Amino acid sequence: MAKIKENWLSILLAVVVILSMIFSALLWTNSLGYEWIANNDSEKGASQRTALQSVGDIYLPTQVILTNSDESQKLLYGQKKNLVLTLRKEMQKWQLAGFRRVARNDSSAYLNYLRNDDSIMLSYPDAMATGIFNQTFSKSIDTQKMPHINHIVIPLKGRDVVYLLDDDDFTVYRLNITQNANRSKLKKLIQNSGQRIDVDHKIVDNQPTVTYPHAIKLPVFAYQLSTQDIDNLTQNLLRSTNSSAFTVKKKGNDTTYMDGASKRLDYHRDTHTVSFNNYLGKDSTYQGASLYRHLYKRLTATGTNLDWMRFDSVNEKKQTIVFRSYVEGFPIFNEHGYGAVKLQANADGVERGQLSLFGLGIPLPIKESRVKLPPSSVVYNELRQAGKDKDITGLRIGYRWDDQNADSKVVKLEPTYYIYYHGKWVAYQTLIDDK
Predict the structure, then answer these.
(1) N or C: which end of the chain has fewer CB within 10 A?
(2) Residue 60 confidence (pLDDT) above 90
(3) Rounded Cα–Cα distance for residues 262 and 255 (Å)
């Protein structure tokens, strides 16, 4: 007892350190904490986190769907080990041969491949340039014959083949896996995967769509807010070595930065968003994978935190790509564009961009109950009753990032259905309420 009294301060300090270690361990083993690991190769250290966001990481598929022998389909999410990264690592070992088209301009045949029994499918949120697919998966698919890919279907029984699908003209190509196919390993990996949601592919308005036949429950997420400094962002986008060289004009909540006559950045302080233009004076249209690579370079030049960022959509005609933050394979939406970056290449003599100072930091524990979402058929019926069904061209589940209070350090994300309406993604309840 005498020794304890003499050393009580050291003992108390040791107890505090031990408790701190326990709480830290609980935080990182929480159901939210594993996704920070999942966004990185589990064999590499956390210090390499940002460096991992290469072209192949940003342009990875975001959805993994398992089709059973009875053609019932399950969306896989919440894996403790990132399933997409693991499948990519396996596919990079494969030797492929015999590139052969097996379907085209036939929606019924295409739907059969989307529902190929006993298979695993990796899907992009929009058309991916085949050149980027080749770079990501270490392949050499003929980009002239197949310029874009939307889905990768891997049968888990029968012949060692893989199917590449293009939504645009319902084209399917088959390739033989001639070396290093290890489908038993894939089956074991899938058996040990995390959560599963019932889904079903349908052709809606001539567009392949993932539907949700039953009500589902999804978790609420919380993240630490990551905020980029406007001065750093201005330096990154205007590429000036001396901020004093900028011409700065303030008007109301807007501040305009000019670097000569060619570069302009507008900062909207009320929404913490930025739009910028780079006037190049001549057109320079990018084709195929060159557009994706060019806008990836523009994305990295912004200095935006890329940990949660993924490719989300492309409009090659307008030379535009939207990169968006994702959680568990689901996209994140906000009316001001928080967590997203929209970039346009030089199609008319001007490069353009829109982004926010806000991004997602580390995941945080949250005790809120799961949110119940209705079947997608109910959503369509409600939209039809509200008279909004005619202008709908897409449906997906996403996470709503509520308007961010600048004083808040926490981002809360709740799941809901999003509808592509008049050229933008809108929460379905917003459309129903807006009568």
Answers:
(1) N
(2) yes
(3) 17
